[in-house]
Design a protein that fits this description.
The protein is α+β, with helices and mostly antiparallel strands and about 525 residues long. About 40% of the residues lie in helices and about 25% in strands. The structure holds adenosine-5'-triphosphate.
Amino acid sequence: MTQEELFKKLVAHCKEYGFIFPSSEIYDGLGAVYDYGQNGVELKNNIKRYWWDSMVKLHENIVGLDAAIFMHPRTWEASGHVGAFNDPLIDNRDSKKRYRADVLIEDWLAKQDEKIEKEVEKARKRFGDSFDEEKYRATSPRVAETAAKRDAVHTRFAEALNANDLAELRQIIIDCEIVCPISGTRNWTEVRQFNLMFSTQMGSTADGASTIYLRPETAQGIFVNFLNVQKTGRMKLPFGIAQIGKAFRNEIVARQFIFRMREFEQMEMQFFVRPGEEMRWWQQWKETRMAWHRALGFGDDNYRFHDHDKLAHYANAATDIEYNFPFGFKEVEGIHSRTDYDLGRHQEYSGKKIQYFDPELGQSYVPYVVETSIGVDRMFLQIMSAAYTEEKLEGGEERVVLRIPAPLAPTKVAVMPLVKKDGLPEVAQRIIDMLKFDHNVAYDEKDSIGKRYRRQDAVGTPLCVTVDHQTLEDNTVTVRHRDSMAQERVAIDALPALVEAEVSFRSLLSKVKA
Ligand code: ATP
């Protein structure tokens, strides 16, 4: 199965099993807006809990916040979003399709990397055991030629981005002979800047109404509350403020399912530090956040850091954590050193002093900020991509199983009476009543046990408990484990401890370095 086919199947699976639906689907949907179904909302809530607990519970110096989506319009002038929150767009005149110029070039660069990897793989097969990869990469003329071309374009690209040189971006697209994937032509328009913020009116009369924006990031809600939290919480530097909430961006191109949405959710933490100490903290947060991802057990090789080619107007260092999605390595999270830009600008625009008195240094200053910013939806897609598995079983049967890390699974236990009579459903119900205060538990009595297991596998339920006639005699049940499909006979009384050991957040959180 190609990665493209896998991705298509994943999207279909998300819909079929109540994870994700297109928004307002009965009206044919709305571009890049999605709804989370009965299983999706549970997984999403668990992702948020994993993040929140790892920030707020595991760190004594991080506290939470829930700021409003609407903010005073001056916020976005101060933050630079009114002037500079733009993406460069380009249209293909034949297909009438719109693209992000920077993404077209990034994809071209990624293709060159793929070309090089393919050459290396071919050579590995040709030379067998005697293959010296390092030497081959250094000496193969074909690899050298592709790498040189790639590096030259990469340099031009980074320079064009940093200089905001739109004509040069277009020229790179022309020079690299990049074609529109739909029309196959190179009939491109000029590159234009496009502001990504949604706006609306607040106030009832046309005269008195003012334009306000739907926040494009949650971070500004944290910055404008810096003093409120610092003073009322008597927080000492370094300390962090964490927030989860909706953000909105009028994305130019919104394909790839929930990877790029117009309404999405962010989990952001702003960590306030002494000026001059930001690089140390930036390194520290890179490690901590990578450990958070890797604790999920999807394979360390599937993650990498990718430093930004263009630093945002507020940053002095920035890296992304990328995950190996079915469509390649792509950003899931950004870790940015934002300097004192945001607090400094709010101080300037509001006219209010936003400073911290450092008792050790005996002086006041505008703190520096290191931010970790991750999309809930992209994290959701990461988990679904990693979890979706098609397996051939003994006897030729097949199953689709979602290997979602057990603490994040929408349903933790499914309880099933072997038959719908003889008092077995009543025992099953008693087990559910025992577990439901601590866990999401499902009841299923339809179809054969085999079919019921398949249904639970397909939504990632880690444990199935079957009640049979023996249960009536000795109060034991069969517990079946999702990943290994192993079954064991256990006493009903032992279930709470067994379930807790398998699905608790404790084991996951203890893998994250606090
Ligand atoms: P990209 O380069 O993909 O547009 P970005 O660098 O603009 O992303 P940030 O502004 O750093 O993204 O946002 C932080 C995080 O928010 C991203 O790592 C991503 O997980 C999430 N995010 C940003 N834009 C979207 C979107 N349109 N849909 C879903 N998640 C998003």
